Receptor-like serine/threonine-protein kinase
Amino acid sequence: MAFAVSSITLFVLLVLLPLSATAQPYRNVTLGSSITANNANSTWLSPSGEFAFGFQQIIPGGYLLAIWFNKIPERTIVWSANRDNLVQEGSKVELFADGRFELSDPRGQRIPVAAPFRVGVAYGAMLDTGNFVLANTSSVFLWQSFDVPTDTLLPTQTLNQYGELVSSFSRTNFSKGRFLFKLQKDGNLVSYTRNFPEGSANYAYWSTQTVGSGSQVIFNQSGYIFLVLKNGSFLNFLLSSATSTSQFYQRAILEYDGVLRHYVYPKSANSSGGRAMGWSPTHFIPPNICLSMGMSINSSACGFNSFCSLGTDQKPKCECPRDYSFIDPNDSMSDCKPNFVPQSCDEEARETDLYIFEDMPNADWPFSDYASFPQVTEEWCRQVCLDDCFCVLARFFDGTCTKKRYPFSNGRVDVSVEGKALIKIRNSNATADSSGSKKSERSILIITGSVFLGSSVFLNLLLLSSIFLYAFCFRQRKSKGLQPCRVLPGLNIRRFTFKELRETTNGFEEELGRGACSTVYKGTIKNDNTETVVAVKTLHKMATEGEEEFKAEVSSISRTNHKNLVQLLGYCDEDQNRLLVYEFMSNGSLANFLFENSMPNWYKRLQIAFAIARGIRYLHEECKDQIIHCDIKPRNVLLDECFTPKISDFGLAKLLKPDQSRTTTGIRGTKGYVAPEWFRNMPITVKVDVYSFGILLLELICCRRNYEPEVEAESEMILADFAYDCYKEGTMHLLVANDDEALNEKRFDKFVMISIWCIQEDPTLRPTMKRVLQLMEGSVEVPIPPDPASSTTSI
């Protein structure tokens, strides 16, 4: 990447450098001063009144402690102290008489902020540069907001080595987002995607390529933003132009879309362009972020299955292809999902005539390729993708056809992109009844009728008998492989004989686990030259209770298809034998992983928590028939060879009809995970699973069982009660006293708060699983949770 490199003399450099902060006028914030978050906010103003320090209400009841431009209608925020943790109305920031500078909630509980305790603080001040400082009696700055920027740089501000900007999540959500701008230790100035939501740097999509030479980023009063090199030269990397700070407000911000932009705003109507122009970008990097993302499947300007294009304002725009929609309608950078039934891989129900292609010229998704064919025609490319149930997108360029599978990523549409994308979608004018097998049957009837009308009586009778015999044999052949469940019509999973499963398990030799109503054995299914390891679950109670559990499990899980749910492969209901055949999960249950081995890695536990939440959300909101699992707990979450968690044991599951949102049923579940409404004769909703997940989430992040009788203090026996006590008293470190990773993890407190919301006794106050995931991912702020036993506020 080329930049204009100029050598500058020491004199010129000193002229361009920002003025010394200690030379700026300011108004002292005296010891004992405080500001309270409320609708009639007081603020600490800079001498000119151009900048203010105080609370801004971001959402109803949620406040950000921030610095903003105070003389423009937009009140544009340039810095915040609690971007990942909005505070409630009544919270207070105070500069104590002993020099402590603290933010506290309405109960007086201290909330960590970017400005820590500093010994020797004599006063604070909001400067006209937009810098808030804490100083001693000699006016030496002990701390300043310029040293800990959020997503914005201001004139006179510098970014030293290790300094970084982190984008906001969205235009209205100020929590940390998906992009990072950083001056590294090696001197290279780099823009990264973040490994969201974990937060580490992932893929570098822009850099100054100054390894070994970069020293400091400076935004001077003349409107230039440049990188000072160790040899005394500089790079004007943002290609900024001279703009007087006396006439224009200025800021450089790493925006939520990953682009670093330099903005100006006229201070008066006499300035060029007039006040009405508002914030106007002058320059930005990279010039086209849609094309900058192209080297890693885990980094993209937009979500999976979406595509990025530049709008007329030169800003990237994320969109879903035709017949796809955003998973989160409120987040335009989220993943896209198909709004149609994907093509079946069943040979007899491939239904190729039900699918068509949406042509997208100048479009490409560089990853997810799994087959490529040179020297072919576009028509051949369309047909080969149509015949392949795994192919969801084909790309054709210069005689080469490339097939892609889900999820397709790093999509971009731009005139510089050659070729076209062919996206397979379901034909909206087609119906599912036009399958190949039904066509065959209709053809047989037509031929039969034709022949019948032109033949003698004897031949007609003979032919009619043959047709009936053929039809009977045809249907028998179809039923040999995948048979619908006799108990629950309409399912399409394999039906085994008891003899087959006895041979599969070698006489039920190797036991994997045992419960009150069932035992699970390891087995091997042999098909041609392949062997598939499976788990065979036998139900002990063959009376009504066992029969109902069997029906529930087959009915619920056979209707699901999600990577975080255990896959049901088949069943047996021969005489009194009731068996279920599942995919084999080689790493056992989450309970074993958490409680019977050494403490698992914090980030692995966090990944598992996200995956389980997605699995439950799928059951509640994405299935054709809503499913309440009713028994979410670590023992019912299994881990595959990659430690991917999958929810299992649907024996207690409850199906809801399309017009139902609640049901009444007898108590189900496991002690410690059962929601209170089970015992109160209340209607049961999906919120019982939310309650159970809240308990499980606490167990995951604290790495201990919900009930531990062998503890020193009786108050610590029940984890849910102990967690709320620790939260209320500000001693949450006690929950993970022996877990250094969790102790040093900023998000630990947030996940405890989410758990407390999930276990509210009033089910109407618990969030949905969709909202739980938004809280976990950081796309929605976590409000202060109330006491679970006396809730009055919902989210």
